[in-house]
């Protein structure tokens, strides 16, 4: 290579070597500096300096959360989140703006009326969107209109359906903001204590809970929170995504208690109502014969119709949280939710864990026989004719139709939609008797309905 063509760094290194004759530094120090200089200039020559800046083009996706000892940063983060949520809240339509929107929609309705519903055309819909204000702009799009368009021959949509759509969206955003205020971690989920605080502060706003004694509040909150966590936290992580809370119907059921004229039937079927919560807690107190606030295995055996097998109850106390061999109210709530909702995947998961004694992930003939033997023993005690396990086993496999003809998995039970029947056959004498006599019971129901029809005529 000609002298003038030598790289810049090569010349510098040569000069360094010439000058090193008068340098008093040790050989090790010289080598370190030589290596550093070589690396620096070689990187620049290869264009590495520009490449090092490329990281600036990558968007930041990780933000470290303040540590427990960083109190000032934690407070700053809380305040910034509160300001952000307030700003989001101000972007929502308030009651007056919703009322004005309704008046505009009603003013722009396009005849003829479809049934009892006022309709609006796409042209009128766009006109309302221009006059409704900037907050409403996101609701007046072609996509929203197409979503609400059904079979109207004039290509119109129902004003009431559109307004309900807007109301629902506003409610969802309001609720999300309300829940986010209790999200202490600020990561989009609520811990058990966060949800407890939310429901506790919600109680005074629900007229259907006006009659609750304040001394019962803690038990009510525990009862309400358990339903959320039992169904929405199947892996028992101790936290639930706010998105999942909004997507399920539980919050709707809870906020239904704002209706002062809620029917008795609706209250009884609503887990969050005062009568329902008092029923569950009352059952717990009735089972607790020694009044120590906990349930022993013998006390729990009187649950429901008192026909759960001892083998199944043994498994409950082996697998789920107990204190000195006794069950507290929170664990009891999980037990009740599982047995009262046996069709639900979360409930089947709870029961399947008990049936799967060896934790293999499936039930085989041995597992089924182990639990059904307890049913056969109970039948003898009640002077009933024992049923052959072979027949029951064949019926269970026929009902479930598992992928593997010798193993039944949890997914097989869920897919078959027969999980509630199978679990009842294996753990509850009353459930097995109901299944065995299903044809007689159906015939009796039909006879009763026919008699009622004749009486009416």
Keywords:
two-stranded antiparallel ribbon; extended
Plain-language structure description:
The chain has 457 residues and is mostly helical. It has 24 helices and 4 strands. The strands form 2 sheets. A two-stranded antiparallel ribbon has the order 1-2. The radius of gyration is 34 Å and the shape is extended. The termini are far apart. The relative contact order is 0.04.
Basic shape: extended
Biggest beta-sheet profile: 2 strands, antiparallel
Amino-to-carboxy terminus distance: 115 Å
Low-confidence runs (pLDDT<50, min 5 residues)?
A: none
Query: Could you tell me the radius of gyration in angstroms?
Result: 34 Å
Please tally the β strands and state the result. 4
Main sheet: strand order: 1-2
Q: Please work out how many helical segments DSSP would assign.
A: 24
Q: What is the chain-wise order of helices and strands?
A: HHHHHEHHEHEHHEHHHHHHHHHHHHHH
Helix/strand-derived class? mainly alpha
Mean pLDDT: 88
- β-sheet strand percentage: under 5%
Considering DSSP H and I runs of 4 or more, what fraction of the residues is helical?
55-70%
List the helices and strands and how they pair.
Layout: H1 8-19, H2 27-45, H3 48-52, H4 71-90, H5 95-107, E1 119-120, H6 122-131, H7 142-148, E2 157-158, H8 159-180, E3 189-191, H9 192-202, H10 217-232, E4 239-241, H11 242-247, H12 250-255, H13 264-269, H14 274-287, H15 297-300, H16 310-319, H17 329-340, H18 345-355, H19 365-381, H20 389-400, H21 410-416, H22 419-427, H23 429-436, H24 438-456
Helix pairs in contact: 4-8, 9-10, 10-14, 10-17, 17-18, 22-23
């Amino acid at each position: 290579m000609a002298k003038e063509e030598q790289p810049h760094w090569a010349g510098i290194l040569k000069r360094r070597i010439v000058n090193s004759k008068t340098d008093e530094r040790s050989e090790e120090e010289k080598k370190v500096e030589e290596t550093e200089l070589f690396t620096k200039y070689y990187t620049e020559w290869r264009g590495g300096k520009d490449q090092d800046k490329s990281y600036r083009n990558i968007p930041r996706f990780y933000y470290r959360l303040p540590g427990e000892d960083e109190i000032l940063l934690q407070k700053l983060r809380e305040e910034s989140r509160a300001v952000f949520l307030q700003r989001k809240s101000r972007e929502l339509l308030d009651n007056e703006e919703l009322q004005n929107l309704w008046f505009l929609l009603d003013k722009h309705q396009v005849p003829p009326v479809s049934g009892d519903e006022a309709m609006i055309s796409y042209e009128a819909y766009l006109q309302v969107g221009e006059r409704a204000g900037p907050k409403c702009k996101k609701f007046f799009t072609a996509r929203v209109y197409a979503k609400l368009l059904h079979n109207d021959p004039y290509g119109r949509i129902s004003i009431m359906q559109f307004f309900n759509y807007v109301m629902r969206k506003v409610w969802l955003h309001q609720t999300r903001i309300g829940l986010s205020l209790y999200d202490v971690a600020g990561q989009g989920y609520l811990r058990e204590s966060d949800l407890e605080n939310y429901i506790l502060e919600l109680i005074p706003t629900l007229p259907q809970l006006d009659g609750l004694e304040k001394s019962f509040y803690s038990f009510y909150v525990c009862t309400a929170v358990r339903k959320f966590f039992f169904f929405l936290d199947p892996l028992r992580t101790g936290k639930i995504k706010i998105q999942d809370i909004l997507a399920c119907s539980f919050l709707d059921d809870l906020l239904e208690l704002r209706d002062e004229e809620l029917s008795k039937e609706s209250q009884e079927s609503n887990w969050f109502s005062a009568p329902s919560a008092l029923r569950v807690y009352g059952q717990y107190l009735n089972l607790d014969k020694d009044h120590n606030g906990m349930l022993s295995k013998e006390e729990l055996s009187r649950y429901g119709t008192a026909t759960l097998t001892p083998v199944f109850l043994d498994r409950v106390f082996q697998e789920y949280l107990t204190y000195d061999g006794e069950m507290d109210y929170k664990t009891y709530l999980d037990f009740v939710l599982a047995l009262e909702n046996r069709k639900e995947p979360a409930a089947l998961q709870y029961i399947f864990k008990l049936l799967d004694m060896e934790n293999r992930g499936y039930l085989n003939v041995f597992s089924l026989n182990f639990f059904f033997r307890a049913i056969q023993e109970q039948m003898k005690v009640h002077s009933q004719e024992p049923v052959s396990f072979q027949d029951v086993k064949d019926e269970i496999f026929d009902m479930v139709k598992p992928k593997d003809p010798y193993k039944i998995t949890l997914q097989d039970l869920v897919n078959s939609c027969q999980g509630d029947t199978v679990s009842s056959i294996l753990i509850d004498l009353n459930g097995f008797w109901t299944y065995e006599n299903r044809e007689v019971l159906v015939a009796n129901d039909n006879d009763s309905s026919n008699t009622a029809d004749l009486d009416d005529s």
